[in-house]
Amino acid sequence: xxxxxxxxxxxxxxxxxxxxxxxxxxxxxxxxxxxxxxxxxxxxxxxxxxxxxxxxxxxxxxxxxxxxxxxxxxxxxxxxxxxxxxxxxxxxxxxxxxxxxxxxxxxxxxxxxxxxxxxxxxxxxxxxxxxxxxxxxxxxxxxxxxxxxxxxxxxxxxxxxxxxxxxxxxxxxxxxxxxxxxxxxxxxxxxxxxxxxxxxxxxxxxxxxxxxxxxxxxxxxxxxxxxxxxxxxxxxxxxxxxxxxxxxxxxxxxxxxxxxxxxxxxxxxxxxxxxxxxxxxxxxxxxxxxxxxxxxxxxxxxxxxxxxxxxxxxxxxxxxxxxxxxxxxxxxxxxxxxxxxxxxxxxxxxxxxxxxxxxxxxxxxxxxxxxxxxxxxxxxxxxx
Length: 384
Hints:
Elements: E1 9-14, H1 18-30, E2 35-41, H2 45-56, E3 64-66, H3 69-76, E4 80-83, H4 90-100, E5 103-106, H5 114-127, E6 131-133, H6 141-152, E7 158-168, H7 182-185, H8 189-192, H9 195-205, E8 208-216, E9 227-234, E10 239-245, E11 247-259, E12 262-268, E13 277-281, H10 289-295, H11 306-319, H12 327-346, E14 350-351, H13 360-363
Parallel strand pairs: 1-2, 1-4, 2-3, 4-5, 5-6, 7-10
Antiparallel strand pairs: 7-11, 8-9, 8-14, 9-10, 11-12, 12-13
């Protein structure tokens, strides 16, 4: 249902930890003319109180606190709920919010399996609302411009790509009880870290058709992987390599796409601006300055951010249409990750559309593989 143009959308947050306080709250403040934060949910009373105080600074939001989602939904009836809890809670909370009649913007991953995603899709259909996952790297002027150029063929046909999320996480990071476990995090860096760059790669290049993969536990004694690699074929014929790591002292996030007429490359860490996008002409195009001017990033520099994605979601609510980062579009990214795990654990290629109900990787990213399922021996080549 479209929101009235003159009425602010009533929003609530579920979870008041670092991601909500540091990213979602500033985004809500930036759009305070369109959205009002009225409620927050957290099981930790002290954290909830601290969040409410922060939200009220400068007279921004008068937030009512609640200890659980059901009580908040019954009392407040919000239009939009932003979810920033640990991943194992996302599916249950998203479905509850949809059934209340509200829309959802949920931190990645939206859920832990394709089965859970399809349960959310069914709840969408029943409620008429939508659930969108936070993929903020799609947003920002540099990413929008790159996709426009690729879609219109301005760079020539995409041929070869590289997608890299090489970060570093130490033993203290995995001391948090829900990290590194399939049932609570859904996977390792493929699911929790590289998902952003892989989603952006798919956003830029479109449908994938085939994945071959490898995964390992090289340092951390966890259930899931601490490094994964993949070879990918796209429907366009383009081919890509993907690397996801939490073992890399020199941290970087990178996407490079070599097209027939130019290379476009994005290098950043946790967010990008226009200057992070570089276009390099092929030799046969270097004497075409007018064409190269079209490649230049726009004068307006909108960084990738939660605020940029929230703006698009609010537009969708206003117009009563499916928001970006939801539905089949977002499911494609989750299916890609499931295929990466299946390919890595089985040692064979996996094709788009292959993982359906009845496939073990539909119900669990580990696919009940004897070396990777919960309870299996989690040996590493070097203990952390």
